[in-house]
Amino acid sequence: MKISKNMQSALNNQIALEANASNSYLSMASWCEITGYEGGASFFYAQADEERTHMLKIVHYLNGLGVPAIIPATKLPASNFKSLESILKTALASEKSVTVAIHKMVEIAQKDKDHSTYAFLEWFVNEQVQEETKFETLIQKFELIGRDKLAINEIDKILAANAAAPADTPA
Ligand code: FEO
Q: Number of structural domains, the chain?
C-alpha cells in the first residue's frame, strides 16, 4: 500500500509535533517537581510518556508501510513557568494546535482516498477530544475551587488522580 508524499510528509511532521509535546510536558513535570507540586509532576510526567507513545504510533505506522519515519530534533521547551494554572492553559493551547494538525491530516487522507491512513487517524481524532476535555476540566477547577494555597493544593491532588487514570493510557 502506498501513501502520498503529502501524507508522508504530514505524518512525519506530526512525529515532530508529538515529540515536542512530549518534551514540553517533561519540562512542565520537572518544574512542578522542583516547585513542590507532586500531583502536577506525576500528571505531566505521565503526559510526556503519553505523547511519546503517540509519536511511536506514527513511527511504527510509517515504517510498517515501508516509508522511513524521520526522527526529529526537538525544540528547546519553555522551562520557566508562572503557575500551575498557566501551565495547564499552555498545555490546552498546545493540544488545540495538535488537534488542528490531526484534522488537516484527516483532510489529506480523505482527499487522497487513503482509507488506511484515515482509519489510523481515527484514534488520534478521538484522543484529541479526550485530551482537550481533560485540560478544560482541569482549568475549570481554578474557578470552582479557587486560587489560594489550599485550593491549589486540592487541584494538585486532582492532577495526581488524573495521572493515574487508566483511560489516559493509549492502546
Ligand atoms: Fe499527542 Fe496530546 O497530542
A: 1
Q: Which atom of ligand 1 is nearest to the CA of 99?
A: 3
171 domain residue, yes or no: no
Domain with 143, as residue range(s), is 5-72+80-164
* Position 42 in a domain: yes
Atom of ligand 1 nearest to the CA of 47: 2
Residue with cell 509532576: 41
* Distance from C-alpha of 87 to C-alpha of 35, rounded to nearest angstrom: 13
Rg over alpha carbons for the chain, rounded to the nearest Å, is 17
The atom of ligand 1 lying closest to the CA of 124 is: 1
Q: Model's pTM, two decimal places?
A: 0.94
160 within a domain of the structure (yes/no): yes
Give 164's pLDDT tier (boundaries 50, 70, 90): low
pLDDT in tens, 127-161: 999 999 999 999 999 999 999 999 999 999 999 99
How many whole angstroms from 113 Cα to the centroid of ligand 1? 25
Classify residue 21 by burial, with Cβ atoms within 10 Å: 0-12, 13-18, 19+: buried
Output the ligand 1 site: residues, CB below 6 A.
18, 21, 51, 54, 95, 98, 131
State the CATH number of the domain containing residue 13: 1.20.1260.10
